[in-house]
Amino acid sequence: MGEEQTGPWFKFTIQDTDEPGVEIPKLTRLLSNLSSAFYVIARVKIGSAGPRPGRRTLVEDTLAAFRLMRVAPGSATIELAPPAAESPPRLPSFEEPTADDVVFDFYQEVESVDAGEPPSAGRWEIRRHVVAVIEEAGGIGSRAEIVYRPRAPRPGFPAVAVLRKTFRTRDLPEVAPPERSSRKRRLSGHAYMVDVEPGRQRLRVKLADGRDITMEADDELVARMGSALDRVVEIEMEEEYEGDTIARRVARAMAVLPSSGPGSDVPPKSIEELESEQHMPAKRPDYASLASAVWESEKELAEFQAHLQEIRKGSAG
Amino acid sequence: MAEYIVADTAVVSYLTNVSTECTAYQKLMGESRLAVSFQTRAELLSFPDRYGPARRQRLDDLLNVILLLPHSEATNVCYARVVERRRELRKLQQPGADASDADAWIISGALEHKLFLVSHDAQQVCLGRAMGLRVLTNLDGLREGNPSSLG
Questions:
Q1: From CA A108, how far away is CA A103, in angstroms rounded?
Q2: Is B113 or A156 the better-scoring residue by pLDDT?
Q3: Do A312 and B102 touch (CB under 8 A)?
Q4: What is the pLDDT of residue A112?
Q5: Which residues contact A282 (CB under 8 A, 6 or more apart)?
Q6: Percentage of chain A surpassing pLDDT 90?
Q7: Of A37-41, A82-86, A198-202, B46-50, which gets the smallest average pLDDT?
Q8: pLDDT confidence band for A79 (50 / 70 / 90)
Q9: d(CA B4, CA B47)
Q10: Which of A40, A206, A222, B96 is placed for a possible disulfide with B127 were both Cys, Cβ 3.0 to 4.6 Å?
Q11: CATH topology for A181-279?
């Protein structure tokens, strides 16, 4: 059986090294950057962008136990063996990525960098870390190669025994970073998961249309987050954008909505109370006139109806 | 207190005078005031970004005079009953079985506050009526089931 079938699970080789040997700090920095890239990929995959220093509980530490470095004249290689068996998820409420998910993602991002393509939506943080790996490799040699042997076929990709990519490590095509912006939103829903531990404070809310939304929590909210569990909450959230993609969500303010008690179908506020709270006008408004200012033509109305139909279709059973 | 009626999202938009349904729904609503579920508010807000700030302001002007029925524990309880009824309708292959979750939340808000619902969505109308809700509509084949009065 040839090397194609039996080689290591993941291999990162720097070719055409500048020196016959490689200084150890250069290799350890490369390994560290590789670990960081895996870590960021795993974090982005669970829906919370950006690394949190000091926490490496995801796939990366599983991979880290199986490192092997080989240095031969003209090349330097890092080899990773896969975990013997997938460990039980440490974040049971999240869809924790597997080691193969992470490594395959890394492979694809390297391809994208080499092709000079901009990062896909929401992946700027991953791109930054993958480029850091390639540039670190560039300090050792001018070309590199990744060989990855998937343990199972990847969805949407033909089943292959080995994926191989050779790429340059210097003079990488420049990609302009996306414009960053932020926007505040208010939402309400059922808070069904609260995750509070040092360095990780997150809240997961089920919205009325059935979608789940996970957000990080502002430090000031942490003490009150426990009280939100399994309650209906209203949250003021800041969404940070990279271009037109949401990179991060942070809950800035939270109110646990009033309830008549678990299981009660009595509205917490009467129509009169709502009317007074919301300062409804004394005189009946001219709804038709106000609506006519929003939808001014049949075309606009038809567009809205199509939009409504589309979003309703997404929630139909 | 003024009489309120819960309007489905499509009905709010049909109140524009460019709609062929405008007159019919105004007549059905009579002098009632409009209330909407949080679901409808979210759906309305999800659309107009492409039209810019002036249109958004006009939408806010409209929403500011429509009573918002917020999400509460009672809405959740009503929702559980509505989706259970929908499940039964699916087994029986009855109208209303294909109502969406959005429909279920809007029906839940009307049930919670014991208000009439006005809707132009056949599945929503059927599921609402299967829940005992008084639902008004101008849809062919369903308007015959409209309650005789809003009182």
A1: 9
A2: B113
A3: yes
A4: 93
A5: none
A6: 29
A7: A82-86
A8: confident
A9: 25
A10: B96
A11: OB fold (Dihydrolipoamide Acetyltransferase, E2P) (2.40.50)
The ipTM, to two decimals, is: 0.94
| CB contact (8 A) between residue B61 and residue A268 | no
Measure the CA–CA gap between A77 and A145, rounded to whole angstroms.
9
Per-residue pLDDT band for A19 (boundaries 50, 70, 90) equals: confident
Of B127 and A93, the structure prediction assigns the larger pLDDT to: B127
More confident residue, A137 or A65: A137
Nearest to B43 among A280, A284, A311 (CB): A311
> Residues 179..208 of A with a Cβ closer than 8 Å to B: which?
188-190, 208
Q: In chain A, where are the structural domains located? A: 3-168, 181-279, 281-317
Cβ distance of B65 and A298 shorter than 8 Å? no
Residues of B in contact with A291 (CB under 8 A): 12-13, 15-16, 62
| pLDDT, position A49 | 41
In chain A, residues 127-186 whose CB comes closer than 8 Å to chain B: none
Q: What are phi and psi of A207, to 5 degrees?
A: -85, 170
In the numeric block, which tokens belong to residue A288? Answer: 């038709």
Q: Which of B21, B107, A278, B111 is nearest to B12 (CA)?
A: B21
Confidence at A164, pLDDT banded by 50, 70, 90: very high
Chain A CB contacts of B86 under 8 Å are: 317
Closest CA to A260 of B132, B75, B47, B43: B75
Contact residues for A189 (Cβ-Cβ < 8 A; gap 6+): A205, A206, A207, A208, A213, A232, A233, B71
pLDDT at position A54 over 50: no
Q: How far B148 CA lies from chain A's nearest CA (Å)?
A: 23
Nearest to A298 among B18, B58, B59 (CB): B18
Which of 222-261 (A) contact B at CB < 8 A? Answer: 232, 257-261
Identify which of A46-55, A68-77, A167-176 has the greatest average pLDDT.
Answer: A167-176
pLDDT at A51 exceeding the cut of 50:
no
Interface test mutation site (partner A, options B17, B71, B106, B116, max chain A beta carbons within 10 A): B71
Closest Cα in chain A to B53:
A294
- Greatest mean pLDDT range, A118-127, A186-195, A221-230, B71-80: B71-80
Cross-strand partners of B116? B5
Task: List the single best residue of B59, B65, B94 to mutate versus A (max A Cβ within 10 A).
Answer: B65
Q: For residue B105, what are the β-bridge partners?
A: none
Nearest alpha-carbon partner for A133 in A10, A5, A8, A246: A10
Query: In Å, how far is A14's CA from the nearest CA of chain B?
Result: 48
